[in-house]
Amino acid sequence: MSNSDVFRPDLNVRPEPLDYPFNNHESLEVSARYKCLRDSPTLSRVRLPRGDPAWLVIDYDLARIVLNDPRFSSAAIPGRSVPRQSNFPADPNLLTLNDQDHTRLRGLITKNFTKKRIERLRPQVRAHARQLIAGMKDSGPPADLVENYAIPLTLHVICEILGVPRPDRARLRLWSEAQFSTNSLAAEETELRSRQLNDYLVGLVAARRAAPSDDLLTDLINAREDDDRLSEAELLVVTRELLFAGYETTSNQIANFTNFLTDRPDIWRSLRDEPQHLEATIEELLRFVPVMAGAGSMPRYALVDVVLGTTQIAAGDVVLVSIGASNRDGQEFPAPDVFRVDRDRNRHLAFGHGRHHCLGIALARLQLQEALSALALSFPNLSVGEIHWKNQVMRGPRTMMVNW
């Protein structure tokens, strides 16, 4: 689609900023406020919890522009604090690097984190899912799906990939959970856990340098591109990124998607009876059920004056892309608020778009496919009981009791 197609003359701007984020973290719904904005202006001014102003994009075509256009950058601007959708600062990650460093690092990583390499893990993921389900059956219902399935499955997989020793994995979980906390932890505790995680990863990298192993971390240490290598600081950023993408996000999605599907028994049964539709079902879940309470993407800065739609964005302005709302744009997705497995073209933005798309796409898809398929095969009558939700930027149950 050409740029002329997305510059729509009917887009206006609300004069008063709206408090953001909109979504309730104790729900899987997309806030109705997005729909109200779509019916009038598409580009709105919002105010984040700490008072930072931003432009909000909920239009699919405009979202793709912001996510991939070099005139917008997620790298922090010197002298300015990064706008936050929660009360605590985010740790450095690939998205906060400047474009040159980001491109360089992605090139070094993707050579070793390929779809082919991930696909080789499928038998191991399937076997571990079955093992966890067997344990749930032995203990009998009810069971906490988060504690007994979603977390141990995804944590096991990413730790196996990175080469994290089994005795260290419980601590790793404790530290990593703090990264997505909003007010469930004090700021001092969040910062302490972040430092502890960094210290641990420094030691893990040093240990792997001294004793290389057959794992991704060793491959990243040895990765080269024209004599270029990852620095120590870059290795830490990359390892944290892979850890969160491979564990925290996907474990939330397993629980969220199970909760969503068990309310729709016909779709749940189809995972067992019509496995040929499994991949399409996962893609529609990714489109329909947003995992983030906020925008779902890092803030972008306009590097130059830009006209987005018909809205003038000044250089230095912050732009947020709501992934969940953009995935409900009727211009791209017919009947956007209807869950449809048979969509002809499901170009959702759940993994981002363009040069900043998620590195863990293949791993996330594989884990979701195997996790949900195994559950549906083993528990055709699974039902969800009491849920206690996390109070985090990333939406998901802290505990979710299930019966079968």
From TrEMBL:
Family as reported in the entry's similarity comment: Belongs to the cytochrome P450 family.
Name this polypeptide is given: Cytochrome
One term of GO molecular function: heme binding
Pfam family, one: p450
SUPFAM superfamilies per record: Cytochrome P450
Pathway this chain belongs to: Antibiotic biosynthesis; vancomycin biosynthesis
Highest rank taxon of the organism: Bacteria
Function: Involved in the coupling of aromatic side chains of the heptapeptide of vancomycin.
Keywords of this entry: Heme, Iron, Metal-binding, Monooxygenase, Oxidoreductase
